[in-house]
Amino acid sequence: MRRVVVPPELLRDQTAPTEIRLTGPAAHYASRVLRLGPGDPVQLIDSDGLVATGTLGPDLVVRVTGLSRSEAGESPLEIGILVGLPKGERWEWIVQKCTELGASWVQPVYTARGDVVIPDKRLERRLERWRRIAAEATRQCRRSLACDVVPPEPLAEALQGLQSCAEGELRVVAALSDDEGSCGLLGAPGGQGRVSRALALIGPEGGLTDAEVRLAREAGFAPIGLGPRVLRTETAAVAVCALLQARWGDMR
Question: Are residues 140 and 188 in the same domain?
Answer without folding.
Answer: yes
